[in-house]
TrEMBL record:
The keyword Signal applies. PROSITE patterns: PROKAR_LIPOPROTEIN. It comes from Cylindrodendrum hubeiense. Keywords: Signal. This is Uncharacterized protein. Transmembrane segments: none annotated.
Length: 476
C-alpha cells in the first residue's frame, strides 16, 4: 500500500471533504510568504503592518468576515452615528499615535470622564436607587480617589515599571503579585481606586479576588496617564477607521472567513498550513515563520501540532466572559450606571452589565454583559439585560415594558476574554515558561494572553519583544 506523508494526506483529505471531485484533480494553490499570521485582530494586524514595513511578505488568516477583533462598530441607520462596541478608546501613548499616523488615520483626544453624559445610578440586581452624593460627599470621594491614584502610582507602578511591556515578571517571582488584589490594594493604600478600576476597564473579573498581577495589568501606566489626562480616538468617531485603513494597506494579504485545516511545524526552515475559505479549494501556505495571534485556548488551537510543553501551558488558561453590544430601549432617556449596593467596592453583581451608556442616538445604549466563566450563550447575555430591565422597571428607572420592547441591533460575544491562570501557577513561574515558547518551532506568540486586553499593551508587546526577535530570525 502506498504511504502518504502526513501533510499530503491532510491536503488530500481536506480536498475530498470541501470541494468537488473534479476540482480535486487540480493542484492545490500554494502560497509562499515570509510570515503567516493566524488571527486578524489587534495583535495580528499590527504585526502584519510592522513586518510589511520591514520588507517581509505576510499573510493574515482570519476566521471572521472582517479584521479588527474586538474593535466593532454599529452605525445607526437613522442617525448615521457610529457606536463603538468593545474597543472605544486608545491610550494616549507614542506607540498608539505612531500606529494611527502610519495608517493615515486622523485622531483626536478626549477625556471620557469629562465628556460622559450624566448617569443615574442603581443596583441593577436589586432595583435599588443609589442616592446622589452631596457636594461634600462628592468632594471627599474625589479626594480619596486622587490620594489612591498617588499611592498607586508611587508605590506600585514605579516598582513594576515593566507592567505595560507584557508579563516580563522577574525571578524570583514577587509573592505579592499573587495576592488577591483587594489585599494588595490595602497593603499599598489604594483601595479607593478599585471601584474605578473595575468600572472603567470593564470587565476585569472580580476586582477583590483576581491575582494582583492582573489588577495592575488592567490599570498600568499608560491607562492611568490617559485616565487622568486624555485618550486617543479616531477623528471620525469610528474605531473601525483604523482597521479599514489596515485592510486597504494589506489588500490580498488577508484571507477572511478562513478555517485552518492543518498546521505542520515539523520542518526546520518553514511552517506549512492548509486553509479553507468558502466555495474555494484549500490553500497550501508555506511560511518561514508563523505568528499565532488568535486566543491561545485549546479550543482555538488544540488541533495544531502542539508540542507537549505548548499543550501543557495552554491547557492551564481559563477565561471569563464578555458580551458587548448595542441595545434599543424605547423610552429610556439618559444613561444608567450599575452600582453594587452590597458588594465589595460596589462592583456590579455578575452576571450583569456595568450600565447602559448612551450611544449618541435616541433610545440607543452601549452595554457590556460580564460572566465569570465562558459557559454561556448570546441568548444568556440578552436574558441578563431583560432581567435587569424588569428589575429597574419595578422602581420606575426605565419604562414598564422595557424588558419586552428591548432589541439588540448589534451584539457580539468577546469570549474567550481575559485568559488567565491561577495564583499558584503564576507563583510557580507560568509566565516565564510561556515566554520561553517564543521562536521555538518557527513560531511566535502574541495577543491579549501575552500582553493584556488593551490594544496599546498588545502593540507594546509586539514592538518590544515579538517583532525584534522575529525580524532578527528572518535576517531583516
Amino acid at each position: 500500500m502506498m504511504r502518504l506523508s502526513h501533510l499530503r494526506f491532510a491536503i488530500w483529505a481536506s480536498c475530498l471533504s470541501h470541494v468537488t471531485a473534479s476540482s480535486c484533480k487540480a493542484p492545490i494553490p500554494s502560497i509562499e510568504v515570509d510570515v503567516a499570521i493566524i488571527g486578524g485582530g489587534s495583535s495580528g494586524i499590527h504585526a502584519a503592518i510592522q513586518l510589511k514595513d520591514a520588507g517581509a511578505s505576510v499573510l493574515v488568516i482570519e476566521k471572521k468576515s472582517q479584521i479588527g477583533g474586538h474593535a466593532e462598530t454599529y452605525t445607526n441607520p437613522d442617525t448615521g452615528i457610529p457606536a463603538n462596541v468593545g474597543v472605544v478608546v486608545f491610550e494616549d501613548t507614542k506607540i498608539v499615535q505612531t500606529y494611527f499616523d502610519r495608517l493615515g488615520v486622523a485622531t483626536t483626544k478626549i477625556n471620557p470622564s469629562a465628556s460622559a453624559t450624566q448617569s443615574k445610578s442603581y443596583d441593577f440586581s436589586l432595583g435599588f436607587p443609589i442616592p446622589a452624593q452631596s457636594a461634600a460627599e462628592a468632594g471627599a470621594a474625589q479626594q480619596a480617589i486622587a490620594n489612591a491614584i498617588g499611592a498607586y502610582s508611587q508605590n506600585v507602578l514605579s516598582k513594576y515599571s515593566w507592567i505595560d511591556q507584557g508579563y516580563l515578571i522577574p525571578e524570583p517571582i514577587p509573592e505579592e503579585l499573587t495576592l488577591p488584589f483587594a489585599q494588595f490594594a490595602q497593603k499599598y493604600n489604594f483601595s479607593a481606586l478599585l471601584p474605578v478600576m473595575s468600572q472603567f476597564n470593564w470587565y476585569p473579573g472580580n476586582i477583590s479576588t483576581i491575582p494582583a498581577i492582573y489588577g495592575i495589568k488592567n490599570f498600568g501606566p499608560g491607562l492611568l496617564s490617559s485616565f487622568t489626562g486624555e485618550f486617543i480616538i479616531p477623528a471620525s468617531g469610528d474605531t473601525r477607521s483604523l482597521y479599514r485603513a489596515a485592510a486597504t494597506e494589506l489588500g490580498d494579504s488577508v484571507l477572511l472567513n478562513s478555517t485552518i485545516l492543518h498546521v505542520d511545524r515539523q520542518h526546520k526552515s518553514y511552517v506549512s498550513l492548509i486553509v479553507q475559505q468558502p466555495n474555494q479549494p484549500p490553500k497550501h501556505i508555506k511560511a518561514r515563520k508563523l505568528i499565532v495571534a488568535a486566543p491561545q485556548t485549546l479550543k482555538n488551537i488544540g488541533s495544531f501540532d502542539l508540542s507537549t510543553q505548548e499543550h501543557k501551558l495552554f491547557s492551564k488558561f481559563f477565561s471569563i466572559g464578555y458580551v458587548a453590544g448595542v441595545a434599543n430601549i424605547p423610552g429610556l432617556n439618559g444613561s444608567l450606571l450599575n452600582v453594587g449596593a452590597l458588594t465589595p467596592y460596589n462592583t456590579p453583581v455578575i452576571p450583569g452589565s456595568n450600565g447602559y451608556q448612551s450611544s449618541g442616538s435616541p433610545n440607543q445604549f452601549l452595554l457590556g454583559v460580564a460572566f465569570d466563566n465562558s459557559d454561556y450563550t448570546q441568548a444568556d447575555a440578552e436574558a441578563v439585560i431583560r432581567r435587569e430591565l424588569q428589575t429597574l422597571a419595578a422602581v420606575g428607572a426605565v419604562p414598564a415594558d422595557s424588558s419586552q420592547k428591548v432589541t439588540f441591533p448589534y451584539i457580539s460575544d468577546h469570549a474567550p476574554f481575559n485568559l488567565r491562570v491561577s495564583s499558584n501557577e503564576i507563583g510557580a513561574g507560568f509566565y516565564n515558561e510561556l515566554l520561553s515558547l517564543e521562536g521555538s518551532r518557527n513560531t511566535y506568540w502574541t495577543g491579549a494572553a501575552f500582553a493584556g486586553h488593551n490594544s496599546g499593551l498588545i502593540w507594546n508587546w509586539n514592538e518590544g519583544t515579538v517583532l525584534p526577535a522575529l525580524k532578527k530570525d528572518l535576517g531583516l
